[in-house]
Amino acid sequence: MGSQPEGRLRVVVIGGGTGLSVLLRGLKHAPVHITAIVTVADDGGSSGRLRKEMDMLPPGDIRNVLTALADTEPLMEKVMQYRFSTGTGLAGHNLGNLLLAAMNEITGDFVTAVKKLSNVLAVRGEVLPASTQSIRLMAEMEDGSIIAGESQIPLTGKRIKRVFLDPEDVVPLTEALIAIDNADAILIGPGSLYTSILPNLLVHGLFTAVKMSAAPKVYICNVMTQPGETDGYSASKHVEVMYNHVGGPFLDTVIVNSASIPEQILEKYAEKGASPVACDLKRLRQLGLHIVAKPLVTFEEGYLRHDANAVSKEVVSLIKRKRRAQKKEKE
Protein backbone atom coordinates (compact mmCIF):
# COMPACT_ATOMS: atom_id res chain seq x y z
CA MET A 1 0.00 0.00 0.00
CA GLY A 2 1.01 3.50 -1.01
CA SER A 3 4.70 4.24 -1.31
CA GLN A 4 4.68 7.96 -1.92
CA PRO A 5 5.81 9.13 -5.39
CA GLU A 6 8.55 11.74 -5.15
CA GLY A 7 7.32 15.32 -4.85
CA ARG A 8 3.62 14.51 -4.52
CA LEU A 9 1.54 16.61 -2.15
CA ARG A 10 0.50 14.63 0.90
CA VAL A 11 -3.18 14.97 1.71
CA VAL A 12 -4.81 13.53 4.82
CA VAL A 13 -8.57 13.11 4.58
CA ILE A 14 -10.55 12.56 7.80
CA GLY A 15 -14.13 11.30 7.99
CA GLY A 16 -16.32 8.38 7.01
CA GLY A 17 -19.57 7.55 5.24
CA THR A 18 -20.54 8.00 1.60
CA GLY A 19 -19.54 11.69 1.39
CA LEU A 20 -15.89 10.85 2.01
CA SER A 21 -15.96 8.03 -0.57
CA VAL A 22 -17.38 10.37 -3.24
CA LEU A 23 -14.59 12.89 -2.62
CA LEU A 24 -11.88 10.21 -2.75
CA ARG A 25 -13.06 8.94 -6.14
CA GLY A 26 -12.03 12.32 -7.57
CA LEU A 27 -9.02 12.96 -5.36
CA LYS A 28 -7.31 9.69 -6.32
CA HIS A 29 -6.84 11.08 -9.86
CA ALA A 30 -5.19 14.28 -8.58
CA PRO A 31 -1.38 14.55 -8.25
CA VAL A 32 -1.51 13.85 -4.50
CA HIS A 33 -0.68 11.03 -2.09
CA ILE A 34 -3.78 10.27 0.00
CA THR A 35 -4.02 8.97 3.54
CA ALA A 36 -7.64 8.43 4.59
CA ILE A 37 -8.25 8.31 8.36
CA VAL A 38 -11.60 6.66 8.88
CA THR A 39 -14.05 6.49 11.77
CA VAL A 40 -14.52 3.17 13.58
CA ALA A 41 -17.63 4.08 15.58
CA ASP A 42 -20.13 2.39 13.21
CA ASP A 43 -22.41 -0.09 14.98
CA GLY A 44 -25.28 -0.63 12.55
CA GLY A 45 -26.11 -3.23 9.89
CA SER A 46 -23.51 -5.71 8.68
CA SER A 47 -20.69 -3.79 10.40
CA GLY A 48 -22.47 -3.89 13.74
CA ARG A 49 -23.10 -7.63 13.46
CA LEU A 50 -19.47 -8.41 12.62
CA ARG A 51 -18.31 -6.10 15.39
CA LYS A 52 -20.37 -8.05 17.95
CA GLU A 53 -19.93 -11.59 16.62
CA MET A 54 -16.23 -11.44 15.71
CA ASP A 55 -14.99 -8.87 18.22
CA MET A 56 -13.44 -6.75 15.45
CA LEU A 57 -13.51 -3.11 14.40
CA PRO A 58 -16.53 -2.23 12.22
CA PRO A 59 -15.43 -2.63 8.58
CA GLY A 60 -18.16 -0.68 6.72
CA ASP A 61 -16.64 2.81 6.42
CA ILE A 62 -13.18 1.34 5.78
CA ARG A 63 -14.65 -0.85 3.02
CA ASN A 64 -16.29 2.15 1.33
CA VAL A 65 -13.02 4.09 1.37
CA LEU A 66 -10.97 1.12 0.08
CA THR A 67 -13.46 0.68 -2.77
CA ALA A 68 -13.37 4.40 -3.62
CA LEU A 69 -9.55 4.42 -3.77
CA ALA A 70 -9.20 1.07 -5.54
CA ASP A 71 -7.62 0.99 -8.98
CA THR A 72 -9.47 -2.11 -10.13
CA GLU A 73 -12.07 -3.24 -12.62
CA PRO A 74 -15.66 -1.97 -12.09
CA LEU A 75 -16.72 -5.59 -11.48
CA MET A 76 -14.43 -5.75 -8.42
CA GLU A 77 -16.22 -2.69 -7.00
CA LYS A 78 -19.55 -4.50 -7.43
CA VAL A 79 -18.09 -7.51 -5.62
CA MET A 80 -16.82 -5.33 -2.72
CA GLN A 81 -20.18 -3.57 -2.36
CA TYR A 82 -22.39 -6.64 -2.91
CA ARG A 83 -24.95 -7.14 -0.16
CA PHE A 84 -26.57 -10.56 0.29
CA SER A 85 -30.37 -10.44 0.31
CA THR A 86 -30.96 -14.11 1.19
CA GLY A 87 -29.26 -16.89 3.11
CA THR A 88 -29.46 -17.74 6.80
CA GLY A 89 -26.87 -15.60 8.55
CA LEU A 90 -25.72 -14.10 5.24
CA ALA A 91 -28.70 -11.85 4.46
CA GLY A 92 -27.80 -8.20 5.08
CA HIS A 93 -24.06 -8.84 5.10
CA ASN A 94 -21.83 -7.04 2.66
CA LEU A 95 -19.19 -9.11 0.84
CA GLY A 96 -16.47 -6.47 1.28
CA ASN A 97 -17.12 -6.49 5.04
CA LEU A 98 -16.79 -10.29 5.07
CA LEU A 99 -13.49 -10.06 3.14
CA LEU A 100 -12.16 -7.65 5.76
CA ALA A 101 -13.40 -9.96 8.53
CA ALA A 102 -11.64 -12.93 6.89
CA MET A 103 -8.42 -10.95 6.43
CA ASN A 104 -8.66 -9.84 10.08
CA GLU A 105 -8.89 -13.50 11.17
CA ILE A 106 -6.03 -14.57 8.87
CA THR A 107 -3.62 -11.79 9.87
CA GLY A 108 -4.79 -11.44 13.47
CA ASP A 109 -4.73 -7.67 13.21
CA PHE A 110 -7.23 -5.22 11.68
CA VAL A 111 -4.68 -2.66 10.45
CA THR A 112 -2.68 -5.41 8.72
CA ALA A 113 -5.93 -6.77 7.26
CA VAL A 114 -6.72 -3.35 5.75
CA LYS A 115 -3.18 -3.10 4.30
CA LYS A 116 -3.33 -6.59 2.76
CA LEU A 117 -6.76 -5.95 1.19
CA SER A 118 -5.45 -2.58 -0.05
CA ASN A 119 -2.72 -4.44 -1.92
CA VAL A 120 -5.24 -6.84 -3.46
CA LEU A 121 -7.40 -3.89 -4.63
CA ALA A 122 -4.43 -1.78 -5.83
CA VAL A 123 -5.56 1.07 -3.58
CA ARG A 124 -4.10 4.49 -4.40
CA GLY A 125 -2.83 5.74 -1.06
CA GLU A 126 -3.31 4.49 2.50
CA VAL A 127 -6.42 3.75 4.54
CA LEU A 128 -6.13 3.83 8.33
CA PRO A 129 -8.64 3.46 11.17
CA ALA A 130 -8.57 6.44 13.57
CA SER A 131 -7.96 4.00 16.42
CA THR A 132 -7.74 0.24 16.91
CA GLN A 133 -9.81 0.39 20.10
CA SER A 134 -13.46 -0.54 20.19
CA ILE A 135 -15.33 2.78 20.37
CA ARG A 136 -18.98 3.49 21.08
CA LEU A 137 -20.37 6.84 20.02
CA MET A 138 -22.69 8.37 22.61
CA ALA A 139 -24.94 11.41 22.32
CA GLU A 140 -26.43 13.73 24.91
CA MET A 141 -29.65 15.14 23.50
CA GLU A 142 -31.02 18.60 24.30
CA ASP A 143 -33.60 17.06 26.67
CA GLY A 144 -30.77 15.49 28.71
CA SER A 145 -31.28 11.91 27.53
CA ILE A 146 -28.23 9.83 26.55
CA ILE A 147 -28.30 7.71 23.40
CA ALA A 148 -25.77 4.90 22.87
CA GLY A 149 -24.61 3.87 19.39
CA GLU A 150 -23.87 5.68 16.14
CA SER A 151 -26.75 4.01 14.30
CA GLN A 152 -29.32 5.02 16.96
CA ILE A 153 -28.45 8.72 17.31
CA PRO A 154 -30.19 10.06 14.15
CA LEU A 155 -33.33 7.98 14.86
CA THR A 156 -34.41 9.59 18.14
CA GLY A 157 -36.24 12.58 16.64
CA LYS A 158 -34.48 14.78 19.23
CA ARG A 159 -31.90 17.52 18.75
CA ILE A 160 -28.31 16.63 19.60
CA LYS A 161 -26.54 18.67 22.27
CA ARG A 162 -23.17 16.92 21.98
CA VAL A 163 -21.57 13.59 21.13
CA PHE A 164 -18.78 11.84 23.03
CA LEU A 165 -16.81 8.61 22.90
CA ASP A 166 -17.00 5.63 25.23
CA PRO A 167 -14.28 5.20 26.41
CA GLU A 168 -13.28 8.88 26.28
CA ASP A 169 -9.52 8.25 26.46
CA VAL A 170 -9.24 6.47 23.10
CA VAL A 171 -5.68 6.06 21.79
CA PRO A 172 -5.13 7.06 18.15
CA LEU A 173 -3.31 4.85 15.65
CA THR A 174 0.37 5.90 15.54
CA GLU A 175 0.46 5.71 11.73
CA ALA A 176 -2.45 8.17 11.59
CA LEU A 177 -0.50 10.64 13.76
CA ILE A 178 2.57 10.31 11.53
CA ALA A 179 0.45 10.91 8.40
CA ILE A 180 -1.05 14.08 9.96
CA ASP A 181 2.41 15.28 11.00
CA ASN A 182 3.70 14.87 7.40
CA ALA A 183 0.60 16.29 5.68
CA ASP A 184 0.63 19.19 3.20
CA ALA A 185 -3.13 19.55 3.75
CA ILE A 186 -5.75 18.10 6.07
CA LEU A 187 -9.27 17.71 4.68
CA ILE A 188 -12.24 17.15 6.96
CA GLY A 189 -15.48 15.88 5.44
CA PRO A 190 -17.75 15.79 3.64
CA GLY A 191 -19.79 13.45 5.80
CA SER A 192 -22.24 13.17 8.67
CA LEU A 193 -21.20 15.84 11.17
CA TYR A 194 -22.01 14.00 14.41
CA THR A 195 -21.58 10.38 13.31
CA SER A 196 -18.72 10.42 10.76
CA ILE A 197 -16.58 13.52 11.37
CA LEU A 198 -16.72 14.16 15.13
CA PRO A 199 -15.91 10.54 16.14
CA ASN A 200 -12.46 11.11 14.57
CA LEU A 201 -11.89 14.58 16.05
CA LEU A 202 -12.91 13.33 19.52
CA VAL A 203 -9.93 10.95 19.54
CA HIS A 204 -7.89 13.44 21.60
CA GLY A 205 -4.39 12.58 20.42
CA LEU A 206 -5.56 12.61 16.83
CA PHE A 207 -7.15 16.04 17.16
CA THR A 208 -4.06 17.39 18.96
CA ALA A 209 -1.97 16.32 15.95
CA VAL A 210 -4.43 18.06 13.59
CA LYS A 211 -4.36 21.26 15.63
CA MET A 212 -0.56 21.33 15.85
CA SER A 213 -0.04 20.71 12.14
CA ALA A 214 1.13 23.67 10.04
CA ALA A 215 -0.79 22.29 7.04
CA PRO A 216 -3.95 24.08 5.88
CA LYS A 217 -7.03 22.53 7.47
CA VAL A 218 -9.96 22.50 5.10
CA TYR A 219 -13.56 21.62 5.94
CA ILE A 220 -15.63 20.44 2.97
CA CYS A 221 -19.16 21.28 4.04
CA ASN A 222 -22.11 19.01 3.30
CA VAL A 223 -24.48 20.15 0.55
CA MET A 224 -27.67 19.03 2.32
CA THR A 225 -28.73 18.81 5.95
CA GLN A 226 -29.06 15.36 7.47
CA PRO A 227 -32.39 14.38 9.06
CA GLY A 228 -31.96 13.62 12.76
CA GLU A 229 -28.48 15.18 12.86
CA THR A 230 -28.20 18.63 11.30
CA ASP A 231 -31.80 19.75 10.65
CA GLY A 232 -31.77 23.47 9.80
CA TYR A 233 -27.97 23.80 10.11
CA SER A 234 -26.13 26.43 8.07
CA ALA A 235 -22.49 26.02 6.96
CA SER A 236 -21.28 28.12 9.92
CA LYS A 237 -23.33 26.00 12.36
CA HIS A 238 -21.44 22.90 11.16
CA VAL A 239 -18.14 24.68 11.89
CA GLU A 240 -19.31 25.98 15.29
CA VAL A 241 -20.42 22.49 16.38
CA MET A 242 -16.93 21.15 15.59
CA TYR A 243 -15.31 24.03 17.49
CA ASN A 244 -17.58 23.47 20.51
CA HIS A 245 -16.63 19.79 20.63
CA VAL A 246 -12.86 20.26 20.40
CA GLY A 247 -12.49 23.43 22.49
CA GLY A 248 -11.99 26.15 19.90
CA PRO A 249 -11.12 27.13 16.31
CA PHE A 250 -8.75 25.03 14.21
CA LEU A 251 -9.88 25.36 10.56
CA ASP A 252 -8.35 27.69 7.94
CA THR A 253 -10.69 27.17 5.01
CA VAL A 254 -14.23 26.07 4.33
CA ILE A 255 -15.39 24.81 0.93
CA VAL A 256 -19.13 25.37 0.40
CA ASN A 257 -21.41 24.79 -2.54
CA SER A 258 -22.93 27.92 -4.05
CA ALA A 259 -24.86 26.26 -6.90
CA SER A 260 -28.64 26.44 -6.81
CA ILE A 261 -30.36 23.07 -6.73
CA PRO A 262 -33.14 22.12 -9.17
CA GLU A 263 -36.65 22.20 -7.71
CA GLN A 264 -37.42 18.53 -8.42
CA ILE A 265 -34.31 17.43 -6.50
CA LEU A 266 -35.17 19.75 -3.59
CA GLU A 267 -38.63 18.16 -3.44
CA LYS A 268 -37.13 14.66 -3.40
CA TYR A 269 -34.87 15.57 -0.47
CA ALA A 270 -37.63 17.46 1.35
CA GLU A 271 -39.67 14.24 1.47
CA LYS A 272 -36.87 12.78 3.62
CA GLY A 273 -36.60 15.95 5.72
CA ALA A 274 -33.38 17.29 4.15
CA SER A 275 -32.79 20.80 2.82
CA PRO A 276 -29.77 22.68 1.37
CA VAL A 277 -27.11 23.76 3.87
CA ALA A 278 -27.30 27.59 3.81
CA CYS A 279 -24.03 29.18 2.70
CA ASP A 280 -23.99 32.01 5.30
CA LEU A 281 -20.87 33.85 4.11
CA LYS A 282 -21.06 36.71 6.61
CA ARG A 283 -20.95 34.41 9.64
CA LEU A 284 -18.23 32.24 8.07
CA ARG A 285 -16.12 35.39 7.60
CA GLN A 286 -16.74 36.35 11.24
CA LEU A 287 -15.28 32.96 12.17
CA GLY A 288 -12.08 34.04 10.38
CA LEU A 289 -12.30 31.43 7.64
CA HIS A 290 -11.04 31.60 4.09
CA ILE A 291 -14.13 30.72 2.03
CA VAL A 292 -14.27 28.86 -1.27
CA ALA A 293 -17.89 29.17 -2.41
CA LYS A 294 -18.42 27.69 -5.88
CA PRO A 295 -20.84 25.40 -7.73
CA LEU A 296 -19.44 22.07 -6.57
CA VAL A 297 -22.25 19.56 -7.01
CA THR A 298 -23.32 17.02 -9.60
CA PHE A 299 -26.64 15.24 -9.92
CA GLU A 300 -26.41 11.45 -10.16
CA GLU A 301 -29.60 9.46 -10.59
CA GLY A 302 -31.59 12.15 -8.79
CA TYR A 303 -29.11 12.45 -5.92
CA LEU A 304 -26.81 15.31 -5.08
CA ARG A 305 -23.13 14.52 -4.84
CA HIS A 306 -20.05 16.67 -4.44
CA ASP A 307 -18.37 17.08 -7.82
CA ALA A 308 -15.28 15.15 -6.73
CA ASN A 309 -13.09 16.41 -9.59
CA ALA A 310 -14.03 20.07 -9.03
CA VAL A 311 -13.48 19.79 -5.26
CA SER A 312 -10.14 18.02 -5.83
CA LYS A 313 -8.95 20.83 -8.11
CA GLU A 314 -9.88 23.41 -5.47
CA VAL A 315 -7.98 21.46 -2.82
CA VAL A 316 -4.81 21.08 -4.93
CA SER A 317 -4.83 24.78 -5.86
CA LEU A 318 -5.30 25.72 -2.16
CA ILE A 319 -2.28 23.65 -1.15
CA LYS A 320 -0.13 25.11 -3.92
CA ARG A 321 -1.11 28.68 -2.95
CA LYS A 322 -0.27 27.99 0.69
CA ARG A 323 3.09 26.52 -0.29
CA ARG A 324 3.94 29.54 -2.44
CA ALA A 325 3.02 31.85 0.46
CA GLN A 326 5.20 29.87 2.87
CA LYS A 327 8.08 29.96 0.39
CA LYS A 328 7.81 33.75 0.10
CA GLU A 329 7.82 34.12 3.90
CA LYS A 330 11.10 32.18 4.09
CA GLU A 331 12.78 34.26 1.35
Automatic annotation (TrEMBL):
Pfam families named in the record: CofD (PF01933)
InterPro entries per the UniProt record, alphabetical: CofD, CofD-like_dom_sf, Gluconeogen_factor
Coiled-coil intervals: none
One cellular component term from this protein's GO annotations in UniProt: cytoplasm
Record flagged with keyword Cytoplasm: yes
Annotated GO MF terms: LPPG:FO 2-phospho-L-lactate transferase activity
Lineage: superkingdom: Bacteria
UniProt keyword terms in alphabetical order: Cytoplasm
UniProt GO BP: regulation of cell shape
Location in or out of the cell: Cytoplasm
Family membership noted in the UniProt record: Belongs to the gluconeogenesis factor family.
Biological role: Required for morphogenesis under gluconeogenic growth conditions.
Protein name: Gluconeogenesis factor
Organism of provenance: Brevibacillus composti
